[in-house]
């Protein structure tokens, strides 16, 4: 019996290690803002006035020695909020930095809807980010669309 005890103790120890295998561990869930946060290379910039397209650029776009490009940056503020800015760059001119502000992410899985207050202004899925919002000023409705792909 004395010779059998170390054998059975060894088998018991191996079973205990096998029961604690890492392959059974569940990875912690990643919140929506962490999935969305990052820098997106802008691929479209559009502006309409009174349902007339003022400009609609597929970025980057070049004319002669000038190139127009841009980025969208979404910074995680909380588990369901990203603070969003965008930058337009035109060769030879100062960068145009604009703040969109805090956007609330709604939905249980990507793609998430983006809300500014109670107004839906876009969608994001962690690879693509699109802002599409309209506003009225002086009786004229304006629409701006900005989209990008994550770097």
UniProtKB/TrEMBL annotation:
Keywords: Signal. It comes from the Bacteria. Residues 1-18 form the signal peptide. This is Lipocalin-like domain-containing protein. The lineage of its organism: Bacteria, Pseudomonadati, Bacteroidota, Cytophagia, Cytophagales.
